Amino acid sequence: MSTSFLFQDEEFLGWWPFLREFILALGSEIMEEIHCVEQFFIKIKSLYAFVSQVCFFVLVDLLLEENENFDNEKGDKSVVMALTSVLFYSVFGYFVSRIKDVFHRQRFQLFRSFLTIEHLVTWIFKVILEWVKAIVIVLCLREQGLNYQPSLLYSILTFLYYLCSEKIFVETLPDLFEMLSIEKFENLEHLYVPMAMNFFTVLAGTVVSTYFLLVQYSNFVLLSVYFLVYIRLKDIYYNYWKLLIVEREIFRSFRIATKEEIDSWNDICAVCLTAMSRARITPCNHLFHSHCLKRCLKSSLLCPLCKTHFLDGNSEIKL
Ligand SMILES: [Zn+2]
Ligand SMILES: [Zn+2]
């Protein structure tokens, strides 16, 4: 029988277009499913951050040790080192999240009464407890003969990576930038700042994993490329970049209201409840301050007054 009998078979050639279509449809269906799973993974922010932190910390440790052989024992030591570092840094993360809580509560007069000396003492005790937990683990590891003595460069690199990938900092830094009210950001700090932080992690991940891909390839390195580069680039594209384009487009689609329109509106801005001398008009014919509209777009794409979806009837903008 000839080896190329398949291509000579007329019956098969008749079926080929259908088979090809089926394979392509199945392929795109599978890709869609994988995309959904990856997006779900990204949504579990603490796990998403933890996995990339551990991968990055392990690679940095191996890189700084300059060990020629990627043996198992060395790998285990690096993993323990990475986990311990994450543990220590998470105490700092916990500390910052509690401070954020306190500031957040103080912003609302209503809850001010809740912030008592008792709360402060509980809070301090909790932070101390977290530190004690971390120290006890380090002491236990020392008992096992594993010394936690990170070099200065390791600490700097891993801590910077931790700052740029941990949920609490990714959420808090945009707020700090917002306070500076830099014009260039067009009130989109909540997208620009996390995108820049994510970009830094991708850059750092790319540099470290490229080195290992070229010098000492292993399955772990391949897995790291997936988590440190591919998934993070996906996060930037789908969860920040696309949203950035949509928010900018939507905002541009709001016409600036004329003096007559503001006069005939004869009402206050429904967001900040103050009078308007300048305003923008939404497609549902409601007037708001520009900055108030931008602020609302951050939380949802619905009109703050009548809850019309801004993407409805705006067929040119696609999410
Ligand atoms: Zn307003
Ligand atoms: Zn409306």
TrEMBL record:
GO terms for cellular component: endomembrane system. This is RING-type domain-containing protein. Gene3D superfamilies: Zinc/RING finger domain, C3HC4 (zinc finger). Keywords: Membrane, Metal-binding, Transmembrane, Transmembrane helix, Zinc, Zinc-finger. InterPro entries: HRD1_E3_ubiq-ligases, Znf_RING, Znf_RING/FYVE/PHD. It comes from Phyllotreta striolata (Striped flea beetle). It comes from the Eukaryota. Residues 269-307 form the RING-type domain. The chain crosses the membrane at residues 47-64, 79-99, 120-139, 214-233. The lineage of its organism: Eukaryota, Metazoa, Ecdysozoa, Arthropoda, Hexapoda. One of its GO terms (molecular function) is ubiquitin protein ligase activity. One of its GO terms (biological process) is proteasome-mediated ubiquitin-dependent protein catabolic process.
